Amino acid sequence: MDSCRFLILFLAILCGGLRTSASGAEESNPPNIIYILLDDAGYGDLSCYGQEHFQTPNMDSLAETGMKFLQHYSGSTVCAPTRCSLMTGKHTGHCVVRGNREVKPEGQAPMPADTVTIPRLLKKAGYVTGMFGKWGLGAPGSTSDPTEHFDVFYGYNCQREAHTYYPEHLWSNNEMVELDGKTYAHDLIVEQTLKFIRDHRDEPFFLYVPVTIPHAAMHVPAESHDPFRKVFPEFEEVEGEYAGTTVTNPVAAFAGMMTRLDDQVGDLLELVRELGLEEETLIMLSSDNGPHKEGGHKPDFFDSNGPLRGHKRDLYEGGIRAPLLASWKGKIPAGKVSSQISAHWDMLPTFCDLAGVDVPSDVDGISLKEELMGNPDKQQPHEYLYWEFSERGRSQAARKGDWKAVRNNLKANPDAHIELYNLSEDLGEEIDLSSQEPDVVKEMSAILKDAHVPSATFPLFDSEASGK
After folding, report:
1. 158, 136 in Cβ contact below 8 A?
2. pLDDT tops 60 at residue 1
3. What pLDDT does 18 receive?
4. Is the domain of 170 the same as that of 103?
5. Judgement on whether residues 235 and 104 belong to the same structural domain of the protein
């Protein structure tokens, strides 16, 4: 044990901070936590979830050395509300950010200054916190600028700026880092991510890495793009345009983006091993919502949503079911597959539980610690999961057990029909059972009503927008 970690342990003992189990046995120190969030990667975009057009061996290794979740969900079906749900532990019926809302000249509308987030809570346990990637929850200098939450920040503040991988600038804490518009910003973000691990190897850290791959623009350097142009020559006449840039053979570019990211995940895993941190570090990887259809990306060709219906901006399974991989050497049983129903808003209570921090009473998430540690019989289940989306005609969805309810077009009809699906028998949500199961519809209708707290900023019904 190095001197710094010894000092932390010694101080914990002096202060009575060393936690014990019910039997009185000492528990291990709280882990470092690395949480990687992909941007618009679908449920089927990793080879361990069925992707066959390219391979993601490094990301897959997290499943081999740890646990793969089959019934995990994103906080929302688009960027900002997912990130708010993740950071605050609340579903979109309760969290303050429920859609994408820009402010000028750069950034998204901020969360309130007193918003409780994962990094703010983990700091109470002595964690140093770092974020590298896309924020989207508060413009530069606002009440929820990322530096108001994290000790170290590097990346895109604004989601709109992140539409290009070749931006004019990024942010390093509160300083604008000017770029030439020709530098692949994702690589700079990865470099700073690895630097953070090296810099803080001797103290407990929380590292949040919301990368931009494979969001919208199919931008990737030639060394990653060109090999797949030979694999997919049938798309050489196809062009994809996004963020003012046209890409030839965006299908090859998508595969190049995903494999480039996979190589970089491999670099991160190797660094953790090299520094001797494997047994002290929980590593998790997920995605913010389902696959997109922009920039020439062809999710149907890649079967990006696997057997699921819908894509990004839908509340069907394809828009919100997400991969989740978790690895922690010596703690999480290797090669396990979990059917635990879970969501992004579970991360806050899970991380607090592992760090020994009290969980706020108003969160919607549950701690997944028992499931992760291989004790599924002790794992608390969700009563239900809930989503709402104020764009695209407005919609709601809820899941309770195997039942899934979806309501669309609430703007046009506040009493829109509730579709009902049995996911254990109909994962593709093809057969609406609402007419056959009136009692279940009644139960799900109550959830859709009770889980929603009105928001004038992101109204689900016109009466909320007008303040009635």
Report:
1. yes
2. no
3. 40
4. yes
5. yes
For every residue of 31-57, DSSP letters joined together read: PEEEEEEESS--TTSSGGGT--SS--H
> How many CB atoms neighbour CB 464 within 10 A?
17
**Residue % of the chain over a pLDDT of 70:** 93
CA distance 351 to 341: 17
Confidence of residue 466 (pLDDT cuts 50, 70, 90): low
Three-class secondary structure of residue 61 per DSSP: helix
| Tokens, residue 306 | 């696997």
Instruction: Give dist(CA 384, CA 403) in Å, integer.
Output: 10
- Residue 29 — very low, low, confident or very high, per pLDDT cuts 50/70/90? confident
Neighbouring-strand partners of residue 102: 108
List of long-range contacts for 176-182, beta carbons under 8 Å, 24+ apart: 176/140
Mean pLDDT of the chain: 94
Which residues sit opposite 72 in a β-bridge?
322, 342
Residues spanned by the domain of 294: 30-378
pLDDT over 90 for what percent of the chain? 92
User: Model pTM?
Assistant: 0.94
Nearest to 292 by CA among 36, 37, 38, 35: 38
Cα(253)–Cα(256) distance, integer angstroms: 5
Q: Given 378, 398, 426, which residue is the final one in a domain? A: 378
**C-alpha count within 13 angstroms, C-beta hemisphere, residue 221:** 10
pLDDT in tens, 321-330: 999 999 999 9
Rounded Cα distance between 367 and 345, Å, is 10
398 and 371 in a common domain? no
Length of the chain: 468
* φ, ψ dihedrals at 33, nearest 5°: -130, 120
Range of lowest pLDDT (16-25, 76-85, 124-133, 340-349): 16-25
Q: How far apart are CA 455 and CA 448, in angstroms?
A: 15
Which of these, 283, 271, 331, 324, lies nearest to 32 by C-alpha position?
Answer: 283
How many domains in the chain?
2
CB 327 within 8 A of CB 58: no
When comparing pLDDT for 298 and 19, which is higher? 298
C-alpha to C-alpha distance for 10 and 191, rounded to whole angstroms = 33
pLDDT for 23 beyond 60: no
Average confidence (pLDDT) over 159-166: 96
The answer to the question of residue 92 being in a domain is yes
What count of other Cβ atoms lies within 10 Å of the Cβ of residue 113?
Answer: 10
Alpha helices for 248-362 (secondary structure H): 250-274, 299-302, 317-320, 347-355
Is residue 420 classed as helix, strand or coil in its secondary structure? strand
Q: Is the pLDDT of residue 79 over 70?
A: yes
Q: Are residues 297 and 412 in the same domain?
A: no
